[in-house]
Design goal:
By secondary structure, the protein is α+β, with helices and mostly antiparallel strands. Helices cover about 40% and strands about 15% of the residues.
Length: about 375
């Protein structure tokens, strides 16, 4: 079919340049750094000799032939293992076995555990009084909109858990939706019911609940102590709204049409940087497929068996699109989850893709494109940074 996504087109064109070019006819042209993969010229030997070369190739292709880092094998194996266990869970019985807890007892314990010290909804009216709608400060609107979204999520999590407990007590009817919620809680997955009001997440249940609580703490600190010096980009429910707010502040301050400005990106080495005059400092991103070298100040290869690396603080500096800084860089996409795909919402934004960032690099951009390098706002699980 026709490829319409610009990121997919970029990858396909990059791969085509590797295999379909005049240099492929050179005797010393290799398709991979090791030199194992190349196209033997017919003039070099007979058909039998070419067949012998093909037979010397490994049965299972190494990641390098596709341009991946060696860590890609680990990622592939983890995905296959996850798929296997997910399939096994589908065959699991709900009945309890000899001395263990029953299905209902397990679900009840999970519900009570999550409801322990469960966050209260934010007082939206008080928030709007403390952070009123101001022409020169769009972040006030961003804050109140985020609080509203998290209030909806808080309500649906709390109400569903309380209804499940009541259903086991015979007070309310266990509907089909609650029954599905019970099975997903038992399997350690995020209930589909919650996902209707939730931000995208691939975390297991326990990690998701911890992540949700951390987000609530972030916004409660903002609400009580004022705008943070460095924003936790991963904590936003609607990340694009925050980015638009940062651009809007700059556009209104300098009376420039918002369509004429874009972000410049600068790595901030300090752990506690000063608040910039324009733009925002953000943290919470993770590199997938590479790392940042603090000595050379450019992107570098991932360390063996390290799948994800925490990204440094980044200054999102608004500037006119015609005045962006020129430097050797890689246009790195930012996604909310490692799934790297989403659907267009009613606002016209993707549910997963966030934006493109320009990061300093001394490699040709094609190198990182074939590596599949991207930044993520969150990991599938909090323990999957290093193996």
């Amino acid at each position: 079919g026709r490829v319409t996504d610009d990121k997919d087109r970029r990858l396909i064109l990059c791969l085509l340049k590797t295999y379909y070019n005049e240099k492929a006819f050179d005797a010393d042209y290799k398709y991979s750094p090791s030199g194992l993969y190349y196209s033997p010229l017919p003039a070099e030997g007979t058909i039998e000799q070419l067949k012998e070369y093909v037979e010397t190739l490994p049965l299972n292709s190494s990641p390098e032939v596709f341009g991946f880092h060696e860590n890609a094998d680990i990622t592939k194996n983890m995905q296959e293992t996850t798929l296997l266990f997910s399939s096994v869970l589908l065959t699991q019985s709900q009945s309890g076995g000899g001395g263990g807890s029953s299905f209902e007892e397990t679900i009840k314990m999970i519900c009570e555990s999550i409801l322990t010290d469960f966050p209260e909804e934010f007082d939206i009216r008080a928030a709007e009084e403390k952070y009123p709608v101001l022409y020169e400060e769009s972040m006030n609107t961003v804050l109140t909109q985020e609080l509203n979204r998290f209030n909806h999520l808080t309500a649906i999590i709390r109400d569903s858990l309380q209804d499940i407990i009541k259903a086991f007590q015979g007070i309310v009817l266990l509907s089909q939706v609650l029954e599905q919620c019970c099975q997903e809680l038992f399997d350690g997955k995020i209930p589909t019911l919650w996902q209707t009001k939730s931000y995208p997440s691939l975390k297991p249940l326990a990690s998701y609940v911890d992540d949700y609580r951390e987000r609530i703490v972030f916004f409660r600190n903002w609400l009580e102590n004022g705008k943070p010096d460095v924003f936790w980009l991963s904590g936003f429910h609607f990340t694009q709204g925050f980015l638009t707010g940062a651009l809007q502040n700059y556009a209104r301050k300098y009376v420039i049409a918002i369509d004429l400005i874009d972000f410049d990106f600068e790595i901030v080495p300090e752990e506690k940087p000063a608040v910039p005059d324009d733009g925002v400092n953000v943290w919470g991103l993770f590199f997938d497929g590479c790392k940042y070298n603090y000595e050379t100040k450019v992107l570098d290869e991932s360390d063996p068996k390290v799948l994800f690396v925490k990204a440094p603080i980044i200054w999102l500096q608004p500037s006119k699109s015609t005045e962006l800084k020129e430097f050797p860089h890689y246009e790195c996409p930012v996604y909310k989850t490692s799934e790297r795909r989403g659907v267009l919402s009613t606002t016209g934004h993707s549910t997963n893709y966030v934006m493109m960032t320009r990061l300093p690099s001394n490699h040709n951009p094609d190198h990182w494109i074939k590596r599949g390098v991207a930044m993520l706002t969150q990991l599938d699980d909090q323990f999957s940074i290093t193996l």
